[in-house]
Amino acid sequence: MTKLNTFEQAVETYEPVLGLETHIELDTRTKMFCGCATAFGAEPNTQVCPVCLALPGALPVANRAAIEATIKIGLALNCTIASWTRFARKNYFYPDMPKNFQTSQYEEPLCEDGYVEVVVDGEVHRVEIERVHLEEDTGKTLHVGGTTGRIHGATESLVDYNRAGIPLVEIVTRPVPGTGALAPEVARAYTAELRDIVRSLGVSDVRMEQGSLRCDVNLSLNKPGEEWGTRTETKNVNSLRSVERAVRYEVRRQSALLDAGERIFQETRHFHEATGETSPGRSKEEATDYRYFPEPDLAVMEPSREWVEELRASLPELPRKRRERLQAAWALGDKDMQSVVNADAVDLIEATVAAGAAPAGAVKWWLGELSRRANESGAELTALAIDPAQVAELQAMVDDGRLNDKLARQVIDGVLAGEGSPAEVAQKRGLEVVSDTGALETAVDEAIAANPAVADKIRGGTHAAAGVLIGAVMKATKGQADAGAVRQIILDKLS
């Protein structure tokens, strides 16, 4: 295998061109073309019927709620809503496709020509949306008996059709050039913004870990001034961090191949969470390979202007406006607010403030110690085993003088280890600040006796030397002394 370039080497020579295709399962009560339930986690093949199993004679009926949700998404993405649109049959064979075709949209999507703007490192990047269309999801194939969960090496494959027919919105961007070395971060920021927009509409839970939001990452490289290169499509990337890593890896891999004079093949690729690498899937089909033709069993859709405007008027506060409101309420500068957005911490901090913490305290913990823990473990911040209410409780204990920051970090250790709430962890581990005057005076007397020269300096008016004695007391009390109280006792005794 060709040795990979570093990312920095790659972007010195080549310009990345991004393209993102995002699939979002809608949170409707029933499937797209039948009345089957859509609840996640049901026993395999218990939410199926003749329509979604494509039994002979079964006819589909379009789900109005799904159409409405798609229009809302299009409006939130600044799209034009079609006045006339229809479904088409996308023909291909795969075991999780009971009909051997997918009911989708082709030349007449429901929403077109939109955009999303994201800010990365102070730069505004506009990602243009080519189309937003509605289709049905496929079933789920489980490959068992192997070690990777993939078909290679498996002893058998099982198909669960519960997901087949769930309403699925596909959002396709136009190519995004000009991102340079920021391409991975722009891809992540766009996916995060899209997730937040859809979540704000209440039409999907957009939980990437459950597959209700799945991202396909397209990437090509070209030298400045040359035509765009051949693209690859990394399929079903299922976390924000992985979107960024997939772009970064493909830039490194493709640049190494081009440097070696080798070809880039237009293909789908699989992303491997454990290594951050991609591997070949199949050669990528063109639209003509799917033999699209209009779906004969469904009528055309003609959303009225009145209906569209009614839906536009019902849109909630969108994420960008919300962030502006929260930034003002939290008294954060642009740079600090961007750090909050980049850390995917807006919801966490808002919930922590709602639970009683001051904004400054909430921001401090989520962007400081907790972000460090997430980075060390390679997890998303939202995946840490601590919730906003617990962070608010922790900050309240600091505010009340029961914990200092050093002790609070030890409390976080316990909460993340599943030992209980901050108060429970502090009690079990004996971590609360020692504020008993008698105990502190004893510790101060011992520190003075052990450091007579320092004590003389303080008696002579050099109060800054008190820091040495405070440090000695903190060491003796394992960091649990109230530093402010200790300082006052020292000055009272020696000044």
TrEMBL record:
Its EC number is 6.3.5.-. Residues 347-494 form the Asn/Gln amidotransferase domain. SUPFAM superfamilies: GatB/YqeY motif (SSF89095), Glutamine synthetase/guanido kinase (SSF55931). This is Aspartyl/glutamyl-tRNA(Asn/Gln) amidotransferase subunit B. GO terms for molecular function: asparaginyl-tRNA synthase (glutamine-hydrolyzing) activity; ATP binding; glutaminyl-tRNA synthase (glutamine-hydrolyzing) activity; transferase activity. One of its GO terms (biological process) is glutaminyl-tRNAGln biosynthesis via transamidation. It is an enzyme of class 6 (ligase). Heterotrimer of A, B and C subunits. Gene3D superfamilies: 1.10.10.410. Belongs to the GatB/GatE family. GatB subfamily. It catalyses: L-aspartyl-tRNA(Asn) + L-glutamine + ATP + H2O = L-asparaginyl-tRNA(Asn) + L-glutamate + ADP + phosphate + 2 H(+); L-glutamyl-tRNA(Gln) + L-glutamine + ATP + H2O = L-glutaminyl-tRNA(Gln) + L-glutamate + ADP + phosphate + H(+). It comes from Glycomyces sambucus. Allows the formation of correctly charged Asn-tRNA(Asn) or Gln-tRNA(Gln) through the transamidation of misacylated Asp-tRNA(Asn) or Glu-tRNA(Gln) in organisms which lack either or both of asparaginyl-tRNA or glutaminyl-tRNA synthetases. The reaction takes place in the presence of glutamine and ATP through an activated phospho-Asp-tRNA(Asn) or phospho-Glu-tRNA(Gln). Keywords: ATP-binding, Ligase, Nucleotide-binding, Protein biosynthesis, Transferase. InterPro entries: Asn/Gln-tRNA_amidoTrfase_suB/E (IPR017959), Asn/Gln-tRNA_Trfase_suB/E_cat (IPR006075), Asn/Gln_amidotransferase (IPR018027), Asn/Gln_tRNA_amidoTrase-B-like (IPR003789), GatB (IPR004413), GatB_Yqey_C_2 (IPR023168), Gln-tRNA_amidoTrfase_suB_CS (IPR017958), Gln_synth/guanido_kin_cat_dom (IPR014746).
